[in-house]
From TrEMBL, chains A, B:
Keywords of the record: DNA-binding, Transcription, Transcription regulation
Keyword hit for ATP-binding: no
SMART domains associated with the record: HTH_ASNC
Domain HTH asnC-type, first and last residues per copy: 3-64
InterPro entries given in the database record: ArsR-like_HTH, AsnC-type_HTH_dom, Dimeric_a/b-barrel, Tscrpt_reg_AsnC-like, Tscrpt_reg_AsnC/Lrp_C, Tscrpt_reg_HTH_AsnC-type_CS, WH-like_DNA-bd_sf, WH_DNA-bd_sf
Pfam families with a match to the protein in the record: AsnC_trans_reg, HTH_24
Protein name per Swiss-Prot or TrEMBL: DNA-binding Lrp family transcriptional regulator
Gene3D superfamilies in the cross-refs: 3.30.70.920, Winged helix-like DNA-binding domain superfamily/Winged helix DNA-binding domain (1.10.10.10)
Annotated GO MF terms: DNA binding
Keyword Transmembrane helix: no
Native source species: Sphingomonas japonica
Source organism phylogeny: Bacteria, Pseudomonadati, Pseudomonadota, Alphaproteobacteria, Sphingomonadales
DNA sequence: GTTGAAACCTCAGATCC
DNA sequence: GGATCTGAGGTTTCAAC
């Protein structure tokens, strides 16, 4: 999987605007439509492009709260780690769950409609989960940067 | 801005698949194409839909490292907070920067191609930034869940 | 093996009801 | 919200480099 300059341009442009038409995209990268479309399909099949998503505005849709939760478990046996991951995967308000090195085991990004809903989620579904030793939460005051994806040169 | 059941369906479907054609979308929500397109345009103009993005695979594109950095500043005066935000906004590897309540001032999500590149970024551009008191970093071992966006009923 | 040209067919967008 | 229409874009086929 080696990406040439045109592939990287395609990836960068589609990361910026996922609904760009193929003819626009082709023009921007200096190709005609058919070879451009073939490259896009190839990038999708190779897994370089995982999907396309509309970015919704949380606040407009009623999700005014974003919280980061640092979770430590009592047991770090693989089966216990996996069980916790499975548990949070089923909670729609938990959008991200990353296992970390160091003192804390997981960091979670959680969204909620308001503080009350978050407290309810925290106490009844997170702190109360099996094997959870401690949960430290931090409310997001404001978000200065929130770019999905990764840097792409080209 | 009140969203009815069809609006929420549209939002949910476009969050799942941002390249769905309007005719597909219309069929799924039980409308014909023109009114469906009018709703989508309205949702875009109201700001409920902020944009569309291809989700790229970090590992395939050479970004094998994801790190969370907890940053504390020496001064929390608004001008100093804003200066720090401006500083990290210009670093492409810093994808997210959220101001938090509590002991730490900011949490950053950072991607890097490898550990060496991350260490370089950390020491030369983050720890060395003006007004930074401490930076604690945690490497992501694995990511159990990473859903962009928010829960949408419908 | 990848590009480009042409054909076809579906979709987006505008208009009107 | 739905029906109709037109022009534009997506997609396939095939020839050429």
């Amino acid at each position: 999987m080696a990406f040439d300059r045109i592939d990287r341009q395609i990836l960068r442009l589609l990361q910026e605007d996922g609904r760009m038409t193929n003819v626009d995209l082709a023009e921007r990268v200096g190709l005609t439509a058919p070879p451009c479309l073939r490259r896009v399909r190839a990038l999708e099949e190779e897994g370089a492009i995982r999907g396309y998503h509309a970015a919704l505005d949380p606040v407009t849709l009623g999700y005014s709260i974003t919280v980061f939760a640092m979770v430590s478990l009592r047991s770090q046996a693989e089966s216990d780690l996996a069980a916790f991951e499975e548990h949070v995967r089923a909670i729609p308000e938990v959008r991200e769950c990353h296992m970390l090195n160091g003192e804390i085991d997981f960091i979670l990004k959680i969204v909620a409609t308001d503080l009350r809903a978050f407290q309810e989620l925290l106490t009844s579904r997170l702190t109360a989960a099996p094997n959870v030793a401690s949960v430290k939460t931090s409310l997001t005051i404001r978000t200065a940067k929130n770019d999905p994806g990764i840097p792409v040169a080209g």
